[in-house]
Known about the structure:
- There is one protein chain.
- By secondary structure, the chain is mainly β.
- The protein has strands spanning 2-6, 9-12, 16-17, 23-26, 29-30, 41-45, 48-51, 55-56, 62-65, 68-69.
- The protein contains no helices and ten strands.
- The N and C termini lie far apart (44 Å).
- The model has no long low-confidence stretch (mean pLDDT 94).
Amino acid sequence: HGDCVGPNNCSCEAGHVGHICEHSVCDGINSNMNTVCSGHGSCGSPNNCTCNIGYTGHICEHAICNGTLSNETNVCSGHG
């Protein structure tokens, strides 16, 4: 995910970071950080979160409660 520009010196492509360009970046957070993808998924390629079961959204920011997204007004019958 980059080029060798000198002895032990990598120049990473956009969306990759690390000493050897080994980490992808999702929404500005490195894939090795526990806060990547809102802490509810993994970042396998630049700006591409794979959400854990029960979460959805561009950065896995929404929980799914009984089939309803956590940001919808009717979640938990509108009482939660």
